[in-house]
Amino acid sequence: MEIVLSDTKQLLGLKAANRGAELIRKAIRLNGKANIIVATGASQFEMLNELVKEDIDWSLVTAFHLDEYIGISENHPASFRKYLKERFVDLISLKEFIYVNGESDPYQECIRLGELISEHPIDVAFIGIGENGHLAFNDPPADFETEEPYLVVKLNDACRRQQLGEGWFPTFNDVPEKAISMSIRQIMKSKAIICTVPDERKATAVRDTLVNDISPECPATILRTQANAVLLLDLAAASLVREMI
C-alpha cells in the first residue's frame, strides 16, 4: 500500500482525483470501458469535486456505490443516493450508476446488487475510512470471510455517532441502526483502491490502520494487503503517524 501526504484536504482531494482518473482512463484504453466504486461521507467532498472535472469519457463508465441506510428515502438529507446524485451523477454523463436502494427488501437488494457487480469487475474503488476503522459500513469486528458482495449490517454506536457528528442527522436516535454495505472481500477485489482520508478526527483510525495487526477489529488494516491501494492523507489525518511517512 502506498501512502501519499498532502498539506491540505483540498490538495488531498485533487491528488486523489488525479490518481483515480488516470486509472479510469487506463482501464478505458485497455478495455474500452471502466467500472468504478464511489464512496460518500464528508471525507469525499473534495475528491468528488475534483473528479467530476477530470477529462474522462464518462459514457464508458459504470459506477456502483458502497452502502446505503435501510429505511430512509432517497430524498432524506442523509441518503447516499441523494449525496451521489447531487455531487457526482448529475454532474457527468455516466453509462450507468447502480444505486443501493435501502427502501426495498434489503436481502433481495443484496442479491440484485451482487449479481450486477459480478458482471462488472471493478477497476477503481474510491473509498474512505471511518472513525472506527470501518470500510463501507463494515464496522468492527468486520466479516473478512464472506464472499457475498453485499450484506445487511448492523451499525455500531461509534459509526452512528460519526454520522451524527458529520451533521447528517438531528439526533443520535435518528441515525438508522442497519444498512446495506458492500462486503470487505468485494471491496478488496478492486484492481486499484484510492482511499481518501482527511481531518484530525480520523487520525486514530489512520494510526490503527497502519500499526495494528491486520484484523477484523480494525477493518481498514486489510488495505495493507492490497499492493495497488493508495492511502491519501492530509496533515491532520496523518498527525499520529508522521514519523512513519
Overall, the morphology is globular
Count of alpha and pi helical runs: 7
Q: Helix and strand succession?
A: EHEHEEHEHEEHEHEHE
Structural class: alpha/beta
- Compute the average pLDDT: 96
Q: Show unreliable segments.
A: none
- Most strands sheet: 7 strands, parallel
Short structural summary:
The chain is an alpha/beta fold and 245 residues long. It is built from seven helices and ten strands. Strand 9 (192-197), helix 7 (203-211) and strand 10 form a beta-alpha-beta unit.
What would your notes on this structure say?
The protein is α/β, with parallel strands linked by helices. The protein has a single domain (2-240), classed as Rossmann fold, CATH 3.40.50. The protein is 30% helix and 19% strand. It is built from 7 helices and 10 strands. The protein has helices at residues 9-31, 45-51, 80-87, 106-118, 157-165, 184-188, 203-211; strands spanning 2-6, 34-38, 61-65, 67-69, 96-98, 124-127, 150-154, 178-182, 192-197, 229-234. It has a 7-stranded parallel sheet, with helices on both faces. It has a 3-stranded antiparallel sheet with strand order 4-8-7. Strand 9, helix 7 and strand 10 (229-234) form a beta-alpha-beta unit. Helix 1 (9-31) packs across helix 2. The longest helix has 23 residues, at 9-31. The chain is globular and about 45 Å long.
Helices and strands in order:
Blueprint: E1 2-6, H1 9-31, E2 34-38, H2 45-51, E3 61-65, E4 67-69, H3 80-87, E5 96-98, H4 106-118, E6 124-127, E7 150-154, H5 157-165, E8 178-182, H6 184-188, E9 192-197, H7 203-211, E10 229-234
Parallel strand pairs: 1-10, 2-3, 2-6, 3-5, 6-9, 9-10
Antiparallel strand pairs: 4-8, 7-8
